[in-house]
Design brief:
The structure is a single chain. This protein is an alpha+beta fold. Helix content is 32%, strand content 29%. It is built from nine helices and 14 strands. The strands form three sheets. Strands 3-4-5-9-8-7-6 form a seven-stranded mixed β-sheet, with helices on both faces. A five-stranded antiparallel β-sheet has the order 13-12-11-10-14. α2 crosses α3 and α6 packs across α8. It is elongated and about 75 Å long. The termini are far apart. The structure holds biotin. Biotin binds next to α5, β5, β8 and β9.
């Protein structure tokens, strides 16, 4: 009911009469009035004017099913949406939901994670009220080796969401970290479940640092937040919904075209240290070369000192000066 009322107030933008709300929702005026009061108690500013109705003036920065759900515009907006105040890891929850048969586009969001996962077995901190932890389910009919391309699209969708709300362009550290002033703002962990050679589901998990005012000492010179960079506060629910909107658009094009040619230029323009020297930390070997940007399947092309162009599929690429790497 909260989600439906907020959706109607948002769709309309101006006043919505109590009568309209009752009719659309099939409930009494008292029920509408009670729900409006409950929303006000959560921090929503809703103006009520006689003979005109209700108007949403301001929404609090809360991650709730009503707040996120009423902002959705993407084609998965009817898919299950679960919002936790606290959970272990949204990636774990999304995987569980997918395995229970929930469809593509199922979205899990949390205000706080107690066992947030980063790439390569690292821990990802999501303290309450500051960050965003979001994970969504995909069930594409693509070859498992193409799944990493979705991570590239998730990075672009996240970058666009940040641009929409702040006007700022992040840089991308290949394959999928978003970076501002050489510090990490957003990380993405894509996990895939296979059955023989077939993708059962992919979970794309995205963590944003939004309102962090400080970071633990171990991260202080490596991580940043939107607040630290701009001095402003944001609606985290809006960021989540914009990511979903942009990702769904990219995903549709990807499923049609089956590679990343359509975003290659956009991605490479935003890629940090393109044309510069990078160190590739592969399994058991480390080498240097010049980053040339990604190819049509998302591999990083790196030119060795001998002029040979190598495709880097996976593995860590360190970039001088980034995340206090020296
Ligand atoms: C990284 O850069 O190491 C990836 C970080 C990914 C963090 C997100 S937060 C939402 C989702 N749930 C998790 O447990 N991890 C991802």
């Amino acid at each position: 009911m909260k989600r439906k009322i907020l959706t109607m107030l948002r769709e309309n933008g101006a006043y919505v009469s109590g009568q309209q709300l009752c009719e659309r929702l099939g409930v009494s005026r008292t029920a509408v009035w009670k729900t409006i009061n409950a929303l006000k108690a959560e921090g929503y500013e809703i103006e009520a004017v006689q003979n005109k109705g209700y108007c949403l003036l301001q929404a609090p920065d809360v991650l709730t099913e009503a707040e996120v759900g009423s902002r959705r515009t993407d084609r998965w907006r009817e898919a299950p949406l679960i919002v936790y105040t606290e959970t272990d890891s949204t990636n774990n929850q999304a995987r569980r939901l997918a395995q229970e048969g929930n469809p593509e586009g199922t979205l899990v969001v949390a205000d706080r994670q107690t066992r947030g996962k980063g790439r390569r077995g690292r821990v990802w901190e999501t303290p309450a009220g500051a960050g965003i932890a979001m994970s969504f389910v995909l069930k594409p009919e693509i070859a498992p080796q193409d799944a990493s391309q979705l991570t590239i699209l998730a990075a672009l969708a996240s970058l666009r969401a940040v641009r929409d709300v702040s006007g700022i362009d992040c840089a991308i550290k290949w394959p999928n970290d978003l970076v501002l002033n050489r510090r990490k703002l957003c990380g993405i962990l894509t996990e895939m479940n296979l059955e023989e050679d077939y993708i059962q589901q992919i979970v794309v998990g995205i963590g944003f640092n939004v309102h962090h005012e400080t970071f633990p000492e171990s991260l202080a010179d490596k991580a940043t937040s939107l607040y630290l960079e701009t001095g402003r506060k944001y609606s985290r629910a809006e960021i989540v919904c914009r990511v979903m909107q942009h990702f769904a658009n990219y995903y549709d094009q990807f499923l049609e075209q089956r590679n990343l040619a359509f975003v290659r230029e956009e991605y490479n323009q935003l890629l940090i240290s393109r044309g510069e020297s990078v160190r590739v930390l592969g399994v058991g070997q480390e080498w240097s070369g010049r980053s040339l940007g990604i190819n049509d399947t998302g591999s990083l092309l790196v030119e060795t000192e001998r002029g040979e162009i190598r495709e880097v599929l996976a593995g860590e690429v360190s970039v001088r000066g980034l995340y206090s790497y020296a």
